[in-house]
Write a structure and sequence with these properties.
Helix 1 runs antiparallel to helix 2. 29% of the residues are buried. Helix content is 41%, strand content 28%. The chain starts with 9 loop residues before the first helix and ends in an 11-residue tail after the last helix. Strand 3 and strand 4 form a beta hairpin. A 5-stranded antiparallel sheet has the order 1-2-3-4-5, sandwiched between helices. It is α+β, with helices and mostly antiparallel strands. It contains 6 helices and 5 strands. Keywords: Membrane, Transmembrane, Transmembrane helix.
Length: 201
């Protein structure tokens, strides 16, 4: 199942999709179109290319993180998203104060130190990617765009629940590197079928 109220809209998803996959290519095309006459004369205007690419990389990294958000938020039982700029913010967030996780366990496994960090508490049931069997999703996921490269950190913390007691038992660190599919990365690494749900209005 998914949390239908967290579905996205076609304009938002379409904009993020295009920004993620096309920004770098558009930057190169813009450089070529605006520098063609100079290139013919052997002046490649590499500073202009670097400027276009720098902007495109920031857009790609941010839109990659936002696309991950579209997949992850669909499996959150909570309406409020957690966004932090530092590890101290994470340690004082709802993850500890409301969701009941151990600060010590998180500190022992490590969390991102700084950056635009989105935190997701995933609780859902669905289908495993490999065997297509029912599977429970019970994780904390944190994402952080690099901004200087078209890369997004994806930290996955496995949660174990026994007799109502939650424990964080493992951590994995993955990278969403453009042009890898955000949904494909999550599906492969968490062995859970991730998809986007789009509502029309």
């Amino acid at each position: 199942m998914v949390y239908y109220e967290h579905a996205t809209d076609p304009v938002t998803f379409g904009t993020l999709f295009l920004a993620y996959y096309l920004s770098i290519m558009v930057a190169v095309l813009l450089w070529f179109a605006t520098s063609y006459e100079y290139i013919r004369k052997g002046n490649y205007r590499l500073k202009r290319l670097a400027g276009f690419l720098a902007v495109a990389v920031v857009i790609t990294s941010l839109s990659g993180a936002e696309l991950l958000d579209e997949y992850l938020y669909l499996h959150m039982p909570y309406d409020e998203k957690i966004t932090c700029l530092s590890s101290s913010c994470i340690m004082s967030s709802a993850l500890i104060t409301e969701y009941g996780f151990s600060r010590e366990e998180l500190e022992a496994l490590g969390v991102p130190s700084f950056g635009v960090i989105n935190v997701y508490r995933l609780v859902d049931t669905g289908i495993s990617h490999d065997l297509k069997l029912p599977k429970r999703l019970n994780h904390i996921v944190m994402t952080r765009p690099w901004l200087v490269l078209p890369v997004v950190d994806v930290y996955v913390y496995e949660v174990s629940e026994v007799n109502g007691t939650k424990r964080i038992v493992d951590k994995e660190h993955y990278y969403l590197v453009w042009p890898t599919s955000p949904g494909g990365l999550l599906t492969e690494k968490l062995n859970f079928e991730f998809s986007v749900m789009i509502h029309s209005g």
